[in-house]
Amino acid sequence: MTNPSSLDGRVAIVTGASRGIGKGLALGLAAAGARVVCAARTVDAHPEGLPGTIHETADQIRKLGGEALAVRCDIGDDSDIAQMVSETRERFGRIDVLMNNAMTSTRGLFEETTPDKWDLSMRVNVRSLFTTCQAVLPAMKQNGSGSIINMTSGAARHDAAGVPPGYLVYSVAKAAMERFSTALALELAPAGIAVNALRPGAVKTETSAHELGPDYDFSGWATPDSVVPSVLFLAAQNGSGFTGHVVDATEFGDVWP
Q1: How many other C-beta atoms are found inside a 10 Å radius of the C-beta of residue 111?
Q2: Nearest CA among 188, 199, 191 for reference residue 244
Q3: Contact assessment for residue 239 and residue 190, using Cβ atoms and an 8 Å cutoff
Q4: CA-to-CA distance for 11 and 34, rounded, in angstroms?
Q5: Quick check: 180 and 129 in contact, CB under 8 A?
Q6: Which domains, from first to last, does the chain contain?
Q7: What is each CA distance from 151 to 14, 19, 230, in whole angstroms?
Q8: What is the DSSP letter of 252?
Q9: Beta bridge partners of 193
Q10: Per-residue pLDDT tens digits for 82-131
Q11: Strand runs labelled E in the chain
């Protein structure tokens, strides 16, 4: 954790940091010098559940020489979000980066999806963007800069092909995320805050392996660390830099910036 970086001393919140892409990003941001808040619901390991907890991620960062804080947070709960921000500011005194990565599973065929499941997805996967961004705004405005990165998906594309059945609600939530990101970027640029949405590409995680099953062909899928370089670039941005974009991690360094 001694590599020099423009993220040295900055404070980054990563939601969904107990496993998968979120854990990979938490480790990557820490390696780049950031102090990382590992936020998610999972605080205890369960034999029958998916592996990983926020404490394991934070401990791994510390063992590598980084600084981390584990905070339990359900992004569908406004009070949890407020507490996450409060604990971050109390511990580190500032917030520079918000990595909105967490989401709830929304898989289900249209005819089998109930209004309650739809409402759950909109609350946790869309409304949480509004709530988390508002919660970190005072700290970022106090800094005079900041970067908000929203993890989206290729499923949000209007011309998306190859999205398997059962991901309609997921696709709608990610499309809303992208429009939210580009609209918010215009408002926050004068405050020095960048807002971008990032599509990670096909990444094999514990969740995707569980949802798609052991017989699914994951050949060609990337690992969570493949998303880190693009996130490090976006995390270093502010309102006068690269902002208001929806970009693909797989195209970083070639198509953008």
Answers
A1: 5
A2: 188
A3: yes
A4: 6
A5: yes
A6: 11-251 (3.40.50.720)
A7: 11, 15, 12
A8: B
A9: 146
A10: 999 999 999 999 999 999 999 887 789 999 999 999 999 999 999 999 99
A11: 11-15, 35-40, 68-72, 97-100, 146-151, 193-199, 246-248
Share of the chain above pLDDT 90, in %: 77
The catalytic residue among 170, 180, 233, 252 is 170
Q: Is 189 exposed, middle or buried (0-12, 13-18, 19+ CB in 10 A)?
A: middle
Q: Strand pairing partners for 36?
A: 12, 68
Q: Is 247 left (phi over 0), alpha (psi -120 to 50) or beta?
A: beta
Map tokens 């918000």 to a residue.
98
Tokens representing residue 9 in the block: 């001393």
72 close to 40: Cβ distance less than 8 angstroms: yes
Show the tokens assigned to 37.
């808040």
For residue 47, the tally of other CB atoms under 10 A from its CB is 5
Contacts of 216 (CB under 8 A, 6+ apart): 209
Q: How many CB atoms lie within 10 A of CB 159?
A: 4
* Sign of the dihedral through C-alpha 9, 253, 136, 79: negative
216 flagged as catalytic: no
Query: Of 2, 117, 1, whose CA–CA distance to 60 is shortest?
Result: 1
pLDDT tens-place string over residues 46-82: 655 777 999 999 999 999 999 999 999 999 999 999 9
Contacts of 244 (CB under 8 A, 6+ apart): 181, 182, 185, 186, 189, 195, 196
Q: For the CA atoms of the chain, what is the radius of gyration?
A: 17
